[in-house]
Amino acid sequence: MSQATFDDDELFDEAATDMRADVEESLEQAREALPEADAIWETDADNTLGVLNGLKTALDVGDAEDALRDAKKWYTMGKRADAFEDADDLEASIAAVEEVIADIEAAHDAAGDLAGTIPAIKSALEDDEEE
């Protein structure tokens, strides 16, 4: 069937299917870009600062934010165009990935704060011991 014979409804349905696929693909890319569970759980560090720095490094969301943004962009476009018959699953998946990214970023910030504080506490304790 040539493209000239497609009617608007068929083209719209095809575009809606493509948008759903784009959202799902972007969500998959976001999930794949998240850190692996073992990377944030296991450590080879010799001291607390090494653990914190390693954890901070492991808690990098990488390209997950960009992939989530793409998923949200295509989802929003499809929803506003009323292109999805049932988009509850997409909305729930986007919210779940968004929540995981927010949790990882919060933990990253906390590890960074601790990594910045621990050396000063160690120095203060050493100074106190000398007195």
Automatic annotation (TrEMBL):
InterPro entries to which the protein is assigned, alphabetical: DUF5790
Protein name (Swiss-Prot/TrEMBL): DUF5790 family protein
